[in-house]
Amino acid sequence: MSNPVVYFEIPVKDIDRAIQFYHTVFGFVFEKEVIDTYEMALFPFDDKKSGITGALAKGEVYKPTQNGVIIYFKTEDIIKTLDKVQQNGGEILYPKTSNGELGFVAEFMDSEGNRIALHQSVRDN
């Protein structure tokens, strides 16, 4: 059996603002598309690497929230990433915290009001 999660969508109110936020914080470059009448900005994906991909998604069924599924983005330096989050209109919700052998985690609110998490492996510390 393969890993169970294959794709995610992050709800946004303003797709251009969200693209700018995620590009500035993480360096992601997006492809904009309309899929099933919804505006989407697709995260980069390389099928030769491990992991999944997703999109920023705008439409009446997409409602940003802090009370739902939490997505973890990998980072090599949580503190630097959280600094960029704050510099670009985000808010720290849970500071860098050790999870022992699993590494470090933190959470922030993005430009759209979503709770997003970060993961830094022990090797990157």
**Any idea what the CATH superfamily is called?**
2,3-Dihydroxybiphenyl 1,2-Dioxygenase, domain 1
Count of domain modules: 1
Largest sheet: 4 strands, mixed
The CATH class label is Alpha Beta
- Gross morphology: globular
For this structure, the CATH topology is 2,3-Dihydroxybiphenyl 1,2-Dioxygenase, domain 1
User: Roughly what percent helix?
Assistant: 10-25%
In short:
The chain is an alpha/beta fold and 125 residues long. It has helices at residues 15-26, 78-87, and strands at residues 7-11, 31-35, 38-42, 53-58, 71-74, 91-98, 104-109, 115-120.
Describe the model.
The chain is built from two helices and eight strands. With 125 residues, the protein is an alpha/beta fold. The longest helix has 12 residues. It starts with 6 loop residues before the first strand and ends in a 5-residue tail after the last strand. It comes from Aquimarina algicola. This is VOC family protein. InterPro entries: Anthracycline_SecMetBiosynth, Glyas_Bleomycin-R_OHBP_Dase, Glyas_Fos-R_dOase_dom, VOC_core.
Topology:
Elements: E1 7-11, H1 15-26, E2 31-35, E3 38-42, E4 53-58, E5 71-74, H2 78-87, E6 91-98, E7 104-109, E8 115-120
Parallel strand pairs: 1-4, 5-8
Antiparallel strand pairs: 2-3, 3-4, 6-7, 7-8
Features:
2,3-Dihydroxybiphenyl 1,2-Dioxygenase, domain 1, 18% helix, alpha/beta, 2 helices, 4-stranded mixed sheet, single chain, 125 residues, 8 strands, globular
